[in-house]
Amino acid sequence: MRKTTGSVVYGVNYVYSKGIDNTSGAENQDNVPNGNLTNGTLNGLIQNPFDLRANRAPSDFDLRHNVNGFWLADLPFGTGKKFGNTSGRLKDALIGGWQWSGTLRFHTGFPLGAGNGFNFPTNFFLTSAGTLQGSAKTSLSRCAGLGDGSSGCFPNLFSDPASVVNSLAPTLPGADGSRNIFRGPAYFATDMGVYKSFKMPWKESQRLQFRVTVFNVFNTVNFSDQFLSLDPTSPSTFGQPTSTAGPRGGAREMEFAIRFEF
What we know:
With 262 residues, the chain is mainly beta. Helix content is 5%, strand content 34%. The chain has 2 helices and 15 strands. A 7-stranded antiparallel β-sheet has the order 1-2-5-6-13-14-15, with no helix packed on it. The radius of gyration is 26 Å and the shape is elongated. The two termini are 32 Å apart.
């Protein structure tokens, strides 16, 4: 949805989706990268060709909730605006010509599955996922213990990682494991910008604009699932994210610019 109200332009869209498949792979990718088994991992292969539905689960790219929004507002100050309409040239140069913009992004986490160690129970080319015996809920905790039961304060995908480790078992020969049974960390970030424009004294159609933009303005910490260990054979690191998500690690950044319009 996009709408213009007075001096404000804004838009927002929300997508609810669900992707289900038997295995996931990028479009047009090779099953064997570079045509060599030693140069990468196999992608998009069915775990058990004799039971195609055995690994039916949410797709690796299933993004259940996805929200995006933006806005651009001319602040109501200065000549011709609601406040300070009769301002002189000097006062208008101070209070007029201000704009506020921003973007907002949020999405839930991607599906994840527990590892099975270096074991190939069913398919020589695929290690398969571990088998979950019971139920486990992902609940990102900023201060959780370790998967081996040790105490500590570390970020973790689970509030009690030790109980999840104990509920996982090696996948037996002929079985397929529990694929994509967890959800990775969600992502939320907001960018904002403030712009000040000055009309040039020699020609009002020309403007000089000073811009300040802040990316991830609230310095929100978003954990990445790219290097998140879900191998129960390494319980001391199970469920721990080791990197943050976002451009250049998702840290708050500020950008200053000058723009001349003519």
